[in-house]
């Protein structure tokens, strides 16, 4: 087998070399390079395709990023990254997607995760803007000389009233302690008598006297609870052609004022419910009406009497008007709010008026000089309701930011924040004791606050719909709440239970007010009527 199969060039096997190629033949065998120029349309298409590809990749990356779900937090982060907070026609979901895409781009550019980017931005903002607790400087706005004199006047007015209230509270506490001690001794004596087989002594109060103040107060409470349990409607009046937005009793209970969306306020004699006067002066719908606490209904419409301030009205035309009790004409117009006025309240002295507005401020006015004394900020959204403490030292405001605030009129400081509601606060009132207050909210609950403990001590799930207003009784043991569920409820605050539900309106109830002594309550409704309710007899 000498023959072998060879693979490859046969010329090499034969021992001969192939001839060298000629120079021109070698150049001819080299491949020719041809440059092709793309058209502008082709280049634009490629760029568009590349942009779409990058966008798709960013969207895919954005889906894996954990971004804030709260719309307010989303806006806050967009503002930090110098992005528009809101675009035309953009909703919360689209805004959150835009933030996620922004974070995805920053991840690619910076090589960091979204959580690291957000944390780093927070650290940068914290360094740039010191935290409130780190600031040592107090911020003050210089007030006018009139405001200073008003604060001094309120101080002098409130101190005697506070002293009287605290003295009464201390005396009641001493009586209560003596009552409990005497009761314990009496029970011990009865137990010893039963053991000896004797009949214990009967009759007389715990302290041996029928005039025991604690027993009398308890019996009065039981009587009021029974009468409120039998409360019924006594009168119903069509108040206006448009919804009734407010109702209030005079300080002596002899008159009722109502206001409506027609821009007209009306005064009524009670219990006859006769319309005596119509107050026309505002250009827009009325939001509230309140009587001067120092005015008496005996001088209603008496032209010969001195024309003292009778009541005040607040309107959507951003003004507050004060009406004279004799002439029933406008005595003064208080203008200063930039948005519509929500609620108004008189200081217990009758010298000052407080008003709240959608411009996120509440203001204090001198009712005698009609001068604006104070324009107070502090709420992040519209300030809706206002109430003065009985001593005149404190004022409480609450608004659509779901917060309430207690302000000291003597110093101008915000002494307490009422934080607990999850929706806007629409109702607010001080307890006659001066150390408690109640708030009603759109979250369908009533919160009871103790100013001494600086917290809410009880939450009442009161209504199935928003609570429009709350009012304490004179004794402070009962609370009245009105709601958009077309009912008013009477609450026993000693055990926080419902005593009575008053139903009679066809539409949502806007306001409720209580006459002095709790002899009547009045309600105003969206059905254009206002009604009087009176406690029944309790045997």
Per the principal axes of the C-alpha atoms, what is the gross shape?
globular
> Which runs of at least 5 residues are low in confidence (pLDDT < 50)?
none
Separation of the first and last Cα atoms: 140 Å
Strand order of the largest sheet: 1-28-27-26
Mean pLDDT: 85
User: If you compute it from the alpha carbons, what radius of gyration comes out, rounded to the nearest whole angstrom?
Assistant: 39 Å
Major sheet summary line: 4 strands, antiparallel
Keywords:
539 residues; alpha+beta; 4-stranded antiparallel sheet; 8 helices; 28 strands
Layout: helices, strands, pairs:
Elements: H1 10-13, H2 23-29, H3 40-62, H4 71-80, H5 92-110, H6 114-128, H7 145-196, H8 213-229, E1 232-238, E2 244-249, E3 255-260, E4 264-269, E5 274-280, E6 286-291, E7 309-315, E8 319-324, E9 330-335, E10 341-346, E11 352-357, E12 362-366, E13 372-376, E14 383-388, E15 394-399, E16 403-408, E17 414-419, E18 425-430, E19 436-441, E20 445-450, E21 455-461, E22 467-472, E23 478-483, E24 487-492, E25 497-503, E26 509-514, E27 521-525, E28 529-534
Antiparallel strand pairs: 1-28, 2-3, 3-4, 4-5, 6-7, 7-8, 8-9, 10-11, 11-12, 12-13, 14-15, 15-16, 16-17, 18-19, 19-20, 20-21, 22-23, 23-24, 24-25, 26-27, 27-28
């Amino acid at each position: 087998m000498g023959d072998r199969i060879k693979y490859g060039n046969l010329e090499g096997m034969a021992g001969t070399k192939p001839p060298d190629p000629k120079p021109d033949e070698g150049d001819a065998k080299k491949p020719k390079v041809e440059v092709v120029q793309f058209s502008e349309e082709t280049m634009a298409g490629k760029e568009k395709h590349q942009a779409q590809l990058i966008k798709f990749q960013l969207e895919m990356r954005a889906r894996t990023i954990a971004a804030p779900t709260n719309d307010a937090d989303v806006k806050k982060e967009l503002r930090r990254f110098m992005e528009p907070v809101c675009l035309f026609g953009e909703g919360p979901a689209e805004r959150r997607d835009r933030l996620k895409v922004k974070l995805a781009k920053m991840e690619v550019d910076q090589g960091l995760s979204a959580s690291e980017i957000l944390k780093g931005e927070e650290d940068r903002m914290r360094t740039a803007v010191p935290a409130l607790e780190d600031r040592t400087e107090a911020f003050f706005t210089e007030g006018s000389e009139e405001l200073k004199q008003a604060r001094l006047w309120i101080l002098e007015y409130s101190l005697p009233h506070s002293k009287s209230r605290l003295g009464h509270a201390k005396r009641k506490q001493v009586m209560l302690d003596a009552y409990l001690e005497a009761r314990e001794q009496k029970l011990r004596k009865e137990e010893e008598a039963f053991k000896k087989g004797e009949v214990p002594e009967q009759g007389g109060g715990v302290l041996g006297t029928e005039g025991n103040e604690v027993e009398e107060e308890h019996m009065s409470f039981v009587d009021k609870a029974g009468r409120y349990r039998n409360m019924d409607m006594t009168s119903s009046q069509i108040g206006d052609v448009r919804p009734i937005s407010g109702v209030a009793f005079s300080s002596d209970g002899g008159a009722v004022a109502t206001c409506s969306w027609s821009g007209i306020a009306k005064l009524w004699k009670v219990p006859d419910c006769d319309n005596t006067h119509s107050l026309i002066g505002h250009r827009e719908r009325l939001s509230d009406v309140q009587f001067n606490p120092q005015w008496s209904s005996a001088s209603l419409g008496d032209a010969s009497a001195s024309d003292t301030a009778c009541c005040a009205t607040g309107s959507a035309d951003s003004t507050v008007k004060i009406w004279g009790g004799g002439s029933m004409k406008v005595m003064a117009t208080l203008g200063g709010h930039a948005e519509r006025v929500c609620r108004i309240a008189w200081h217990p002295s009758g010298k000052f008026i407080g008003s709240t507005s959608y411009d996120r401020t509440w203001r204090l006015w001198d009712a005698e000089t009609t001068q604006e004394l104070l324009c107070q900020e502090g709420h992040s959204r519209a300030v809706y309701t206002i109430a003065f403490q009985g001593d005149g030292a404190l004022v409480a405001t609450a608004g659509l930011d779901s917060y309430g605030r207690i302000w000291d009129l003597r110093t101008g400081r915000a002494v307490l924040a009422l934080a607990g509601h999850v929706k806007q606060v629409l109702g607010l009132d001080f307890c006659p004791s001066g150390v408690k207050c109640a708030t009603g909210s759109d979250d369908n609950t009533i919160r009871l606050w103790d100013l001494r403990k600086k917290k809410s001590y009880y939450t009442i799930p009161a209504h199935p719909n928003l609570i429009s207003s709350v009012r304490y009784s004179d004794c402070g043991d009962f609370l009245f709440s009105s709601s958009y569920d077309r009912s008013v409820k009477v609450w026993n605050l000693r055990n926080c239970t419902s005593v009575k539900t008053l139903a009679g309106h066809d539409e949502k109830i806007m306001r409720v007010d209580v006459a002095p002594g709790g002899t009547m309550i009045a309600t105003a409704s969206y059905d254009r009527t206002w009604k009087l309710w009176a406690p029944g007899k309790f045997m």
